[in-house]
Design goal:
By secondary structure, the protein is mainly β. Helices cover about 0% and strands about 50% of the residues. The relative contact order is 0.34.
Length: about 140
């Protein structure tokens, strides 16, 4: 009996910040997600750790085809998430999406609209795609 995709579900958080909250006061690139295996993203979300004030924070999950390069970058390639001022600490703002990512992709967490105050922990729900690494141009077997 084979296993359904649910046996390979995962949750990924941005590089470097791990589970630290990211401030939402200054528009900028806030974090990167590195994609190491083919996967499908089914959700993007933010756990509010400091409530947004005055203005809702808007965050784009942009997709880079080549890590570190904006050539071919797809704005909102995974989605756009709005964190309203009505969410209390501990609430999660989420959006359901369905986006296939390949090994070597990079997701850029871009704050496009800042709130006066606020912070959140960001993440993506993913399911590994049952793909043979040899079919992925950016995956090379080690010797």
């Amino acid at each position: 009996m084979g296993y359904a995709d649910e046996s390979r579900q995962g949750f990924i958080v941005p590089q470097a910040v791990a589970l630290d909250a990211i401030a939402t006061q200054t528009p900028a690139t806030k974090a990167l997600f590195r994609v190491l295996r083919p996967c499908t993203v089914y959700g993007i979300h933010a756990l509010v750790t400091t409530a947004m004030t005055v203005t809702a924070a808007v965050v784009d999950f942009d997709r880079r085809i080549t890590p570190g390069s904006d050539t071919g970058r797809i704005d909102q390639g995974v989605g756009r998430l709005t964190i309203p001022t009505t969410l209390a600490i501990g609430n999660v703002s989420y959006k359901d999406v369905t986006v296939d990512l390949n090994a070597g992709d990079e997701i850029v967490l871009e704050l496009v609209t800042a709130s006066t105050a606020g912070a959140a922990v960001f993440g993506m729900d993913v399911v590994a795609r049952h793909e043979v690494p040899a079919n992925q141009a950016d995956m090379v077997a080690s010797v």
